[in-house]
Amino acid sequence: MPTPQPRRLALPHNEPPFRLAPRFGPRMLFSRDVSSGGPTTSASPPRVLIVEDDFLVSGDMEAELIDAGFMVVGIATSAREAIELATTEVPHLIIMDIRLEGPSDGVEAAIEIFKSKGIRSLFASAYHDAETRRRAEPSAPLGWIGKPYPMGTLVAAVRSAMRVVGGPEPQAE
User: Fold this and answer.
1) Interval 141-153: pLDDT, tens
2) CA 133 → CA 51, 95, 106, 126, 157, distances in Å?
3) Separation CA 93–CA 72 (nearest Å)
4) Residue 63 sits in which domain range?
5) How far apart are CA 39 and CA 163, in angstroms?
6) Are strands 71-76 and 47-51 parallel, antiparallel or unpaired?
7) Which residue has the higher pLDDT, 59 or 29?
């Protein structure tokens, strides 16, 4: 008796063997082949921590900063989380909102982070009155951006603040 042969799926000649829905298919990621002799960058990208309790705002911030060549090392929604992320991820600078989840605010977090790690904050908040600015002085603020603001303003302020702290220049994507 002959050995049964596996059946092959017959596809029309103009059809690829499979199709993925463009929106739901897996995304392929490729690493850079440094052995090819192409230019590489030895400097690491500028590292930024976002501290913002509004999910939509932090998502917009993250997307704009990544597009501008920054590395977002994390997004914190509370002062406690901001302190933990700053300690473990060691960003060059922090974009800090004032009103956060939990009992502590962004000013308290910025002061604690500056005292323990020397990392400075760029405040991006609707709360930037004289009393809040006075409270934040011990954190050596890099600047203040009043909400609402266009994302281009945020990126420009982060670029400027990065120069002040001596961080690397972002590499445009």
Assistant:
1) 999 999 999 999 9
2) 17, 15, 12, 12, 17
3) 10
4) 45-163
5) 24
6) parallel
7) 59
pTM of the entire predicted model: 0.75
Per-residue tokens: 120 = 């400075």
The CATH code of the domain that includes 63 is 3.40.50.2300
Residue 126: name the closest of 152, 101, 98 by CA: 98
Number of domains in the chain: 1
How many Cβ atoms are within 10 Å of 157's Cβ, its own excluded?
19
Sign of the dihedral through C-alpha 82, 83, 84, 89: positive
How many angstroms separate the Cα of 91 from the Cα of each of 2, 39, 112, 136, 165? 68, 26, 15, 19, 11
| 122 contacts 114 by C-beta, under 8 angstroms | no
The torsion angles phi and psi of 104, rounded to 5 degrees, stand at -100, 155
Distance CA 127, CA 55 (A): 18
